[in-house]
Design goal:
The chain contains ten helices and twelve strands. By secondary structure, it is an alpha/beta fold. The protein is globular, with a radius of gyration of 19 Å.
Length: 320
């Protein structure tokens, strides 16, 4: 098992009230390390709504620095497999159907929905390579600053896939999503499940903690409460993800025996890792047996609503 002690995060960290309900009361949950920098961050649980969140947390440029060159490309075959499943969950558009993807990344999901007949718009931070790539694909991508300028009741679907956990102010974004949706419009949310078996089994080495990039950690009750407060009626819930469940548990277990966190994740992304040949040998030797065990857990856990993700389709109510 790795014994590397997490280092304190540099710079000034800001204590915050609950980002979901603004309650000030919270209790200590755990301390986790950023798998890239090794910096330690404290997670607390809100005594009001149960949300687990990073506090104190980095803000502004300090937080942005933790994103630099972190998220990479996945294998093209796997990317297309998971992309196809996500597009099928959206379904075919009605005449004039419009879709807004908040946190659209490099635009593959938007492009796939456009090809199915959706009129699509994306929201992404101002990172010129991404914006330029989306523009080259013929996609309209706005920045978060322009979200309030989008017309009321102008979209039939709003999607936030593995975005909510990154947001310093999730309720503000959900209220904007509510505003731009037509009456009865659909909100599609997917986020890691802090109430999952793999989160409980893994503790501070859970792959999807990913502090400080993941500022928020939801179980079903916390997410359901946040959606209700923003004016949404939650409908169908799922906690199984072919993309995230099995791998999340495999990597979490490997992080207990490898010296370099996320070594397998780095290998799969085609990124160089500081991990040793020992870490590579361990990861490859344990990959198959761990995948078999994690696969069984991933199949059984959703039966008790304890799979590795929370996926919900919610509907806009008349008012928040």
């Amino acid at each position: 098992m790795t014994t590397r002690a997490p280092a304190p995060a540099p710079g000034r960290l800001t204590p915050v009230a609950c980002p979901a309900c603004a309650a000030a009361g919270a209790r200590h949950e755990l301390v986790a390390a950023d798998p890239v920098s090794g910096h330690a961050f404290t997670l607390v649980r809100c005594l009001g709504c149960g949300l687990v969140y990073v506090s104190p947390r980095p803000e502004g440029a300090l937080l942005a620095a933790y994103y630099e060159d972190y998220y990479g490309e996945r294998h093209v075959v796997l990317k297309q497999l998971f992309l196809g499943a996500r597009v099928r969950r959206v379904g075919p558009p009605q005449p004039g159907g419009r879709l807004l993807d908040i946190g659209c990344g490099s635009g593959e999901f938007l492009l796939a929905c456009k090809r199915r007949g959706w009129d699509v718009v994306g929201i992404e931070h101002e990172r010129s390579p991404i914006i330029e790539r989306c523009a080259a694909l013929g996609l309209t991508v706005e920045t978060p600053a322009t979200l309030p300028a989008l017309p009321d009741a102008s979209f039939h679907v709003v999607s936030l896939s593995h975005v909510l956990e990154h947001l310093p102010n999730p309720r503000k974004v959900l209220l904007e999503a509510h505003r731009v949706l037509v009456p009865g419009g659909r909100l599609l949310v997917e986020t890691p499940n802090f109430g999952s078996w793999q989160a409980r089994l893994s503790g501070r080495t859970w792959h999807h903690l990913d502090v400080p990039r993941h500022l928020l950690h939801f179980d079903r009750a916390a997410l359901e409460g946040l959606l209700a407060a923003a004016g949404f009626a939650s409908g169908r819930w799922q906690t199984f993800s072919l993309e995230y469940d099995t791998f999340g548990l495999v990597q979490s277990i490997l992080d207990r025996v490898c010296r370099q966190p996320n070594h397998l994740f780095s290998l799969l992304r085609g990124k160089r890792s500081a991990g040793s040949r020992r870490d590579t040998a361990l990861s490859l030797a344990l990959l198959v047996p761990l995948a078999l065990v994690a696969g069984m857990v991933s199949v059984v856990a959703p039966l008790g609503r304890r799979g590795g993700v929370l996926r919900v389709e919610a509907r806009k109510r008349s008012a928040p």
